[in-house]
Amino acid sequence: MMKPEKLFMNIVLLISDIIQERGLSYDTRAGYVNHIIDALVERGIEEGLDDIDLNLRGEYARINLKAEGKKAGFADEEKIASYVNTLIGRINSNCNYGTWPNGKIDGDFSQSNVTGDCWLLASIKALAMSPKGLKILNDSIKVNDRDKTVTVTLKGVGKSYTFDFYELAAARELSSGDLDVRAIEMAVNEYFREQGYVNDQPDINGNWMHVAYNILTGQGGWDHWYPKGSKADALLNSDGITDAQINNFNKSNHIVTVATVDAKTASAKTSTGETVELHTSHAYAVKGSDKDYVYIVNPWDTRNEEVIKVPRETFKDFFDDIDEFDLSKIFGQCF
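Now predict its structure.
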């Protein structure tokens, strides 16, 4: 059983760190604090403690555990881990924040080294490489230079989130470069936290590209193709992905992202001739194809010179999951 004084010190230190995190809005900080207090209340009940005294910034607060009772759903270990990892990520991230947002996705960006949201960033890049996808993204971002705020509206879920520029700059656990992209990351993460869980995840660390499509556009969904010989192929798709389907990657509003979950190795070359490894459990945006290659973009670095040329057969052998949909079919052929 944890001694009351040890539990007390853990609470004070953790909440003190959260209160002093200037990159979080007041409401977000308060939400984190309340969530963790509720979680510790439950832990205290389980360990037989009657009450705990807290001293937060000079204010005396008393929580009577018996009176509070257990609050089902508050002491969620995954959510607590998510909150704490956010704070740690801001300290450990090597990402700089880039330029202030301008309401457009018009710059390069790089995934942070501490947040596993390749699925989201690859989807943003895939959308940004199509005329209609870029319009959807740009229409979702509104910058108020006078108030130094940016508002992101997630079309697919009808939710809007506003951040001031300093919140945006402080979120170093997210992507660097184009801060309009970071604003979208923050909005999607807030949506996850507001909903509790989205596709079984409490935050944007890990998910699938079709989830991003649906949140950002209201369309997309399970539109997978599987390479011949993969585990999924045996169950779902006897022919695997075909060259005709790869040719569709060149349509101007055909949105494609790819990933693989099976343990395998492969390499390809960038536009500058550098050899790079293709990574499992990682998402890429597809830029297009020709008779020899499929061209993909790693959200670790979206610059044009980093576009990866993957031979067609390597592409079909390596990738297990391809999420794609056609914006032209959804919004009509005219643009």
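The chain has a mean pLDDT of 79.
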